[in-house]
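Example 204, ligand glycinamide ribonucleotide.
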Amino acid sequence: MLKRIAVLASGRGSNLQAIIDAIESGTMQNVAVALVVSDRKNAYALERARQKNILTAYFNSRLFISREEYDRELVAYLEEQQIDLVVLAGFMRLLTPYFVLAFQGRILNIHPSLLPAFPGMNGVADALAWGVKVTGCTVHFVDEGLDTGPIILQEALPVARDDTVETLHQRIHALEHRLYPLAISLWAEGRLKIEGRRCLIDEE
Ligand code: GAR
């Protein structure tokens, strides 16, 4: 059965685009992007969704008295839209325990470093500033911590001597655009099993 996913994004939405492209090309067959939500009114991710006639919603944090109120409203909306899986793609808000509990095992995130190294808002800049020789990206389940949930997929790439945050992030984005559709497909096929901190992938 087709799984209905909601993509939550605050920015450019290149990962959203990669997901849409993977669906359109037939690489990802068992999911549909039912909804795109942003906390930023002018996020280009919303524009990408509108171009594909995907339902969009802007959740303005100023209209809520607390992070939990925001999440309660958002969860209610996601449930109303019968969303199976929540996909965070550059969504720059930490979900509250209320949200995580409501969609337990049904929230994925992508992060531009090899977690648990360099969590947070500036994964690429932090890794570069640390002087690492290898970095990459991680797709993981979301739990109540900051980028701490069980890891589904990771891929590494070398840091070049003359890399800037921009050049490095560009190469990481290329990895992300391949890895995220793959992880979403694995979830939709029911092939991911969480055992403690580990996420095991069932062989076909
Ligand atoms: C991606 O690189 C993603 O890994 C990162 O934001 C970017 C969004 O790009 N997420 C985080 O740093 C989360 N902590 P996009 O808007 O082009 O998809």
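Summary: The chain has one domain: 3-201.
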